[in-house]
Specification:
Elements: E1 15-17, E2 22-24, E3 30-31, E4 45-46, E5 52-53, E6 59-61, E7 65-66, E8 73-74, E9 79-80, E10 84-85, E11 92-96, E12 99-103, E13 108-110
């Protein structure tokens, strides 16, 4: 039994075919069999529920986060707009009321 190929855009294995093209159920990318993607590899991030996050999304904090080096706390339920996905351990770059921050996507959910 052959397994479905991984999506060249997000590398997920939830792909399917309609006999003319392949489709990714997660990100919606479509490609032809044997087609080599010339797109640059963009960093990907998933929120606490497994939803793929993209640049410009609005997210909500799912728990209180202490801000290192201060006595401030980002409260659960805080909405953060216009996120940017970056490479690294802290994969979300954003602006909050406490200033620019880098956050881990595991503490966020897409709004």
């Amino acid at each position: 039994m052959e397994s479905n190929p991984s999506c060249p855009h997000c590398n997920q294995t939830t792909t399917y075919t309609d006999m003319t093209a392949w489709f990714c159920a997660d990100c919606g990318h479509e490609w032809q069999e044997g087609e080599v993607s010339n797109e640059t590899s963009e960093p990907t991030a998933r929120d606490a529920n497994g939803t793929v996050l993209r640049d410009g999304d609005t997210v909500t904090l799912i728990k209180d986060l202490k801000v290192r080096g201060t006595s401030s706390v980002l409260k659960m339920g805080t909405k953060i707009k216009q996120i940017r996905i970056v490479d690294g351990d802290h994969d979300i770059d954003c602006k909050t009321d406490l200033g620019p921050m880098m956050l881990k996507s595991e503490f966020l959910k897409k709004s």
